[in-house]
Design a protein that fits this description.
This protein is mainly α. The longest helix is centred in the middle third of the chain and has 30 residues.
Length: about 270
């Protein structure tokens, strides 16, 4: 019985994937709480599109590791988005739509330039958590520590900037730079995780844990704790489901999170 339950531990790729899930899901759960509060659910999706464009640029330039080109492009994309959003009267979702459609069109244009095949980028759409390398686990741990430091040092300013920008500005908070810092954190996490989670579901991993936690939480501590527990629990369950039945890990995790959201939605009034 125990061998059937824990036989996956014998494989190096499963152990690496397990540790990757334990690092990726807390990142998504923490950042997702502000994504939901800020009404920026589609922003992470737009960042995924920009990361795809960065990967295409890196591949076109012949980089051995195009992920870093994608990180750089996503950071520029996030900062430019915040700059344009603060200097236009258009709604945020309209600006996101403009940037997202432009990024995905540019990515497809570059990846198919010269009649090249798009198939080599298909893996980015679904992702493969089992392909995570040992060195990348250390990178994920470093990013998690940086995000935790950001939360410890700037959470109050980030939250006030999200809830009432004018009040935050009157209290001496540099709202633009707080928003830029938060957007940059999302850009890095989304871009680094994209090849393992999949572009098609990465936005749901940011939104669903926080949305489910918001259904039943009565204060900020409960909100973050529930989001973290839901994300990590669904991440482990999704990985195990992927191992035993051969499904996509990213899709399995998303379905578990969707189920958790449904349950918390039904329990929200209690």
């Amino acid at each position: 019985m125990l061998e059937a339950l824990f036989g996956w531990w014998e494989y190096d790729f499963m152990r690496r994937a397990f540790f990757a899930v334990l690092l990726i899901m807390p990142l998504f759960s923490l950042l997702g709480t502000l994504v939901v509060n800020n009404g920026m659910a589609f922003f992470s999706d737009a960042l995924g599109h920009s990361a795809f464009t960065g990967m295409a640029i890196g591949a076109l330039c012949g980089f051995s590791e195009p992920t870093w080109a994608a990180v750089l492009f996503s950071l520029v994309f996030a900062l430019l988005f915040n700059f344009v959003r603060r200097r236009t009267r258009l709604a945020s979702d309209t600006v996101i739509g403009v940037f997202s459609s432009t990024a995905v069109a540019l990515g497809i244009f570059i990846s198919t330039l010269g009649s090249r095949s798009f198939t080599k980028f298909n893996s980015l759409l679904i992702g493969d958590i089992l392909s995570v390398e040992p060195g990348k686990i250390g990178l994920l741990a470093l990013i998690l520590l940086l995000v935790l430091a950001l939360w410890g040092l700037s959470f109050n300013h980030l939250m006030l900037s999200a809830v009432h920008p004018a009040l935050a500005d009157s209290r001496g908070v540099r709202v633009f730079w707080q928003e830029a810092l938060f957007s940059a954190a999302i850009a890095v996490v989304v871009t680094v995780s994209m090849t393992w989670v999949g572009l098609l579901v990465i936005n749901s991993l940011l939104v669903l844990p926080a949305a489910a936690a918001r259904n039943i939480s009565r204060n900020m501590f409960q909100y973050h704790l529930c989001s973290l527990l839901f994300a990590v629990g669904a991440g482990i369950a999704g990985l195990m489901t992927s191992y035993y039945i051969g499904s996509s890990a990213g899709a399995s995790i998303t379905l578990y999170l969707a189920g958790i959201f449904l349950v918390t939605f039904l329990l929200r009034k209690r």
